[in-house]
Write a structure and sequence with these properties.
158 residues, alpha+beta, rod-shaped
Amino acid sequence: MCRSFNVVRKVVRNFRDDTSGVILTESLLVLPVLSLFAFGIMEFGSILWQRQQVQVGVRDAARYWSRCRPDFSNCSLQIARNIAFYGNPTGTGPARVPGWTDAAELTLTPATPPTSPVAADTVSATGSVVYQGSPLFNFVLSSAVTIEYTHMERYIGW
């Protein structure tokens, strides 16, 4: 009886003191958690970057539209949209935000600038885009994330 107890004790001691494979086991436990954490940080950063690009585009379009005066210059909604979506009046180059190129995703009010502005006239621009994240992000969330921004400026009309 004592001999079998000593054998069991020896096996337990060897199992407890054996450290081979510990690094692999710990890595297998920690690696998925760290991977999800890193992925989440990158997705969140991508959302913030796209939000910032939408804000800049909407502000640029509102600034352009607030300075348009139909009797002095050739202003158009298409130029304002090109400025918002592409960052230039001609609409060339890559879009500021992937998928943000539809005219319905940018609203400018009033639709035509006033010919004789008063101090109370304002211009409002609203832009929205559905975030196009990675496939895993879209799998985790059941609904789409919409980025929306509104900017208002006083109408100057140079």
